[in-house]
Amino acid sequence: MSNNMTAEFEAIRRRLSLLPNVIQKRVVRGATRAAGVAVKKEIQKNVPVDKSKLKKSISVKSQRRGLIPQGHEQVIIYPKKAYYSWFIEFGTSKMSPQPFMRPAFLNSRVLAVQAFQDYAFRRIQKEIEKLSRQ
């Protein structure tokens, strides 16, 4: 991660500390989801087969329960109804793999970080303005 990105995340962390914990969690959850949506769009562009069902079924789901440590957020990106996405990604004994999820993830890392930062900065500003009105 570049020093510039680290500095931007540090700025987000400092500004978040001005907000109550409940609002901090909402901001981080929304920013994490925005990053997931950026990755989802890249995955949809990379789907190698012309199957709109597969493209439409790729979704983003925020998860806060289960094995997620307290204070962390997780976004799951998965094909909801297209069971055959696994076969396309990894291949079968009769079909060679046509990876689309992993390359999309690797190519969209910068977009995801940017989406996270943009959302966080906008939402923090909005929440600070709300609190100042009260």
Protein described:
- The protein is mainly α.
- Strands 1-2 form a two-stranded antiparallel ribbon.
- It is about 65% helix and about 10% strand.
- The model has no long low-confidence stretch (mean pLDDT about 85).
- The longest helix is centred in the N-terminal third of the chain and has 26 residues.
- The N and C termini lie far apart (about 40 Å).
- The protein is built from six helices and two strands.
- The chain has one domain.
Largest sheet: 2 strands, antiparallel
- Order of strands in the sheet with most strands: 1-2
Overall geometric form: elongated
Class by alpha and beta content:
mainly alpha
Low-confidence stretches: none
H/E element string? Answer: HHHEEHHH
Q: What is the count of structural domains?
A: 1
> Averaging pLDDT over every residue, what do you get?
83
Number of helices: 6
**Rg, please?**
18 Å
Helical content class: 55-70%
Q: How far apart, in Å, are the first and last alpha carbons?
A: 38 Å
Strand content: 5-15%
- Extended strand count: 2
